[in-house]
Amino acid sequence: MNSINEAKELYGKMVATGLVAGDKATAHLLMRASLREEKPEEALEVFSEAIERGEEPDGLLYSLAIKLTARRLIWQDKVEEAVRLKDEMVSEGIPMNVIAATSLVKGHCKNGDLGSALEMFRKMEKEGPSRTVLRFRF
């Protein structure tokens, strides 16, 4: 746990030297590590870098980005960005999962927008988010 920064540094060197192009699994882990360290900006940077490398985001990458964006709502009004990420995920054919949906509902509530939170909840209730189960522990 104390070597998260070392892991990030090593991964950055590997990508920079061309040893690896990067992959979703590593991006997931680095985003979760940044989330654990309460560094949402770093985690979103990992997401952006993965996209720039040509990584095809999956439901987990999008969900983590949405969760991190929604978490930032405490400090900044970023609800539009979180909703945009959700819309992008759905337009790519990736169903909204429980993590993304819950993060958006919580984000709307923290932002004081109970109407949007209820609307998202009703949409989840009607459409039923995918039941992606994620079990990452650090």
Automatic annotation (TrEMBL):
Keywords on record: Repeat
Highest taxon in the source lineage: Eukaryota
InterPro entries: PPR_P_subfamily, PPR_rpt, TPR-like_helical_dom_sf
Sequence ranges of the PPR repeats: 23-57, 97-131
Family per record: Belongs to the PPR family. P subfamily.
Protein name per its UniProtKB record: Pentatricopeptide repeat-containing protein
Organism: Brassica carinata (Ethiopian mustard)
